[in-house]
Amino acid sequence: MASISLHSNHTLPSLLHAQTPKPTFPQNLSLLPRSSQSQFHGLKLSNSSHLAIPSSASVRSSIVAKVTEGTLPPAFTLKDQNGRPVSLSKFKGKPVVVYFYPADETPGCTKQACAFRDSYEKFKKAGAEVIGISGMAFAQKYKLPFTLLSDEGNKVRKDWGVPSDLFGALPGRQTYVLDKNGVCRLVYNNQFQPEKHIDETLKFLKSV
């Protein structure tokens, strides 16, 4: 039988280690070109050692609404679901709930509209009117008893400063309660729990 003779100053692991070649890479190897960049949800990626993340100040400034509690919202005149012009001033003298929703026929917006419909008698008992602002061709399908207004070009949304969500990719879902003098008394924002808008506005109306 053949035998292996090892010198005293070499062990089997050390021999194996010595025979394992180490990979070498050119010192000037570049995995990405210097000019390569990508965009993902507001983050700017490059081959630098850090990420350009939006500062907290810039994020805060992008979600501050122009209409806040204690302010008088800008007036508007928009067409309702029947094509008739409706002005905000028409409702002066009674509380008004104005809710902005992202789009018609989406699950969340349908749920919110139907929740307002189902609680409409409670709003009437509180002496308040309800106005939804976004699109048209909605009220008849779901038998909504309140006014829906079409804000073409999102002009009123911009005038009121309704904030967007997901870095501006999704129009915001925000509700305002105006008192009988037209002054804003409540601002409520909740994108992903549309039915909470009804609960919170009714709770507020009952408390005043």
Order of helices and strands: HEEHEEEHHEHEHEEH
How much strand?
15-25%
The chain-level structural class is alpha+beta
Q: What is the number of E strands?
A: 9
Assembly annotation: single chain
| Separation of the first and last Cα atoms | 102 Å
- Average pLDDT, all residues: 75
Q: Helical residue percent?
A: 25-40%
C-alpha Rg, in Å?
Answer: 31 Å
**Shape category:** globular
Walk across the major sheet and give the strand order: 4-3-7-6-5-8-9
Low-confidence stretches: 1-18, 28-65
Largest sheet: 7 strands, mixed
Number of helices: 7
Outline the structure in words.
The chain has 208 residues and is of the alpha+beta class. The protein contains seven helices and nine strands. The protein has helices spanning 12-19, 56-62, 107-118, 120-125, 139-142, 155-160, 196-207; strands at 38-40, 43-45, 77-80, 85-87, 96-100, 129-134, 147-150, 174-178, 184-189. It has a seven-stranded mixed sheet. A two-stranded antiparallel sheet has the order 1-2. A hairpin with a 4-residue loop joins strand 3 and strand 4. The longest helix has 12 residues, at 107-118. The radius of gyration is 31 Å and the shape is globular. The model is unreliable at 1-18 and 28-65 (pLDDT under 50). Belongs to the peroxiredoxin family. BCP/PrxQ subfamily. Residues 67-208 form the Thioredoxin domain. It comes from Sesamum radiatum (Black benniseed). One of its GO terms (molecular function) is thioredoxin peroxidase activity. Keywords: Antioxidant, Chloroplast, Disulfide bond, Oxidoreductase, Peroxidase, Plastid, Redox-active center, Thylakoid, Transit peptide.
